[in-house]
Amino acid sequence: MTDRLPPHTIAAEEAVVGSLLIDGEAIHQIPALTPGHFYHGPTRDIYTACLALKDRHEAINQVTVAQELDRRGKLDSVGGVAYLSHLVSILGTSLDVQDYALEVSNAALARRMVAVGQEIANIGYGNPADVPAAIARCDSLVAGLRKGMMPERVLMPGPRSDQLREHFIYLKDRDSIAAKPGGIPKLDRFLGGGFFDGDLVIVAGRPSMGKTTLLSFFAHQLTMQGTVLFCSAEMTSYGLAYRDIARRLGVPINTIRQGRYSEDLYDQILGAVAQMGEGRMVVYSESPMTTSRILQTAVTLQGTTDLTAICIDYLGLLADEYGHGLNERTSYISRRCKEMAVRLNLPVLLACQLNRDVTKRDEKRPLLQDLRDSGAIEQDADVVLFVHRPHYYDADPADRNDPAVEIIVGKQRQGDTGLFECQYANQGYE
């Protein structure tokens, strides 16, 4: 006999139920987790209440869970409303709910392992007369453990075939193509129609190449599909508005910024502002800005609007704190943005700086190796688009404002790489 406590992780159990109180929809990401996986009584009761709400197709949040616990006579025993508030306060996001759930299920499996070991020991201590039968019983107990180790996302051939059949029926019958066009026809065709749900799209370039301009252009084109969340850690809402109005009116941005307008231009500006009020661009501008705050904003919007894409300007200014250096922090942000795209099932477009090495070469066109601070960006990205102005480095200063732009597909997980020439005018890309 032992006086050791069975394996358990109360912190992970609290993180699971806390995640559900923040975002009730997250419960659909952990379908294999059951109340029996929980060791701690209060967290088990809270998770049971969440499942009951899910089965009744009711919202899962701090208020509804408290009401369900009270109805079951469990609210006081779990620690009351104060404990629910504590669970929410210790988490900033529900993004990691699957990781927490895996910790909980692994601990439950470890407890089962201990129980099976004790049962096998008892069989041995029983000095069985039929040893082969006793060994078969031990084998059966161990086989039961192995069944519990099968990851929930493993798809066997039959269920996978059924899932794929439904997917292709959906693609055949839908009114529009699966991708969301970015507004540059030849580029969209090369990408298979545009940007796909679940993809992380990197828009990269050196300073003054037009990353924000291209990202803004894509964002406005994507509003034709639904609501777009544009996150800027670099510019205020006013700064973004100057660009937007200049694009709409086809005038230089400095004309909008400097004020003292003619009456005609003033009327046009007010008309553009009115159009923006009727559009589907949601601007989130905050400093410091983190991936967790972006996710919380996006989850809220997805519950109230037809959110179709997220655009983030830009990676280097996000304030997530992680690891011991810039490389680890950049890798963390890149991974979070990819997880966000998969979790929300929409494209995430992320602007990114290139390192200085590109300026030291005779050939200035960017390469994947020029992505700044981390190789993880290239690894996480489904598509990498480089924006490059070929005349920017010309000796003659007059040539540096040439509107010629190259958009280089440096990576496409599901296709080829390529280069596309276009012109940038005040209205957008041509």
What are the defining features of this structure?
13% strand, 430 residues, single chain, DNAb Helicase, Chain A, Rossmann fold, 2 domains, alpha/beta, 9 strands
End-to-end C-alpha gap? 77 Å
Encode the helix/strand succession as letters: HHHHHHHHHEHEHHHEHEHEHHEEEE
Task: Give the name of the CATH architecture of the largest domain.
Answer: 3-Layer(aba) Sandwich
Task: Order the strands across the largest sheet as they lie in space.
Answer: 3-2-4-5-1-6-7-8-9
- CATH level 4 superfamily of the largest domain: P-loop containing nucleotide triphosphate hydrolases
Helical stretch tally: 17
Uncertain segments: none
Number of domains: 2
Helix fraction, binned, reads 40-55%
CATH class of the largest domain: Alpha Beta
What is this structure's SSE topology?
Layout: H1 10-22, H2 41-55, H3 62-71, H4 75-78, H5 80-89, H6 97-125, H7 131-147, H8 157-173, H9 185-190, E1 200-205, H10 211-222, E2 227-232, H11 237-249, H12 253-257, H13 263-277, E3 281-285, H14 291-304, E4 307-313, H15 326-344, E5 348-353, H16 357-360, H17 376-380, E6 383-388, E7 404-412, E8 418-425, E9 428-429
Parallel strand pairs: 1-5, 1-6, 2-3, 2-4, 4-5
Antiparallel strand pairs: 6-7, 7-8, 8-9
Helix pairs in contact: 1-2, 1-5, 1-6, 2-3, 6-7, 14-15
